[in-house]
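User: Fold both of these, please.

Assistant: Here is the first one.
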Amino acid sequence: MTPTAIDWHILLPALVAGLLVLATHVPLGAQVLRRGIVFIDLAIAQIAGIGVIAADAMGFEPQGWAVQVSALTAALLGALALTWTERRWPEIQEALIGVLFVLASCAGLLLLAGNPHGGEHLKDLLVGQILWVSTQQLIGMAVLTALVLALWFGLRERLGRAGFYLLFALAVTASVQLVGVYLVFTSLIVPALAVRSLRPALRLPLAYTIGALGYLLGLALSARFDLPSGAVVVLVMALIAPLIPWAVMRWRHGAPQAV
């Protein structure tokens, strides 16, 4: 494996895509941890993927509006189903989310069974194509990110159970088409998990820092050594996640105390 030069003309749009995903997923991930429904993103992302696969099977343009509507409709139906199950059986919600993920995965495999490019489509769904995001995708994602953040920080206390699931479905539907299921899960859970024991005032900025460094270093390393970008970003973010809180705690304990 020969190291190659880093082309930031390709990596910069990918980095912007990662940062846009992080913008919504870091605060939503903290809420997911608080609610104890860690695998909800995998389930919703997989359900959105069924919408994408179904639209593709019907011959719609891969980046067209029909695919977006199909993916969002599937994700919203999944969110509504999870809203009902949480109200009906809250004590087994995490198990039901896991079951829904497995069912959605199997449904996706069946939809791809007769597709000669099924393996490629499945890979794109899982690891994404972050290096090939278009300007149009980034603009659409930026608008959606602004909307989700405005609703989350402006109406968070009034969203309720259904509002949270629907907003979550909206965010995940867009991000899974940019970066894939694995990076969606990592962006949601790893930063939030790393900062959970810190002071509340530090959690959000440090979680964003972990996520941003994960994307920056992961993309750079994947380009330098010609490795799959999504997988490298996942591993790098997981490796640096415990280091930043540890460094902050060491610095705080070692800093001189005010008299």
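And the second sequence with its predicted structure:
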Amino acid sequence: MEDEHRPARHARKTGGDRSAFDRFVEAVYLKVSRPSFFFVCVTVIVLWLVSAPLWADLKAWQYVIHTVASVVTLLLLALLENAARRSDEAAQEKLNVIAEALAALMESRAAEDPQLEVDVRKLREAVGLEERH
């Protein structure tokens, strides 16, 4: 039974509850955040640079790298933003749980210090503030 002061929370998804897209985003995030991905990118650029003599038209040669870079950048941006959003939501959930625990502790001591009642009310109003904006 949920406490009347606590706002409703979204259940955090566990490994089995996550969608295929969420698992894909997590896998991509883990791969691209490693040094090996950087070295793959450098290798692609070096291969592109040394391939210049193989192209009859240098504009087409430049067009290829610009197109590939734009597509990869757009896809990675979308995936990494999704991962960052989920990370932010997880951090906010943790902060809310800590604030709720602190509010409950302060409420239990409010009989000894009347100012704590005011502070508990302010803290409870602040919890979940990000969901109201």
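The longest helix spans residues 58-108.
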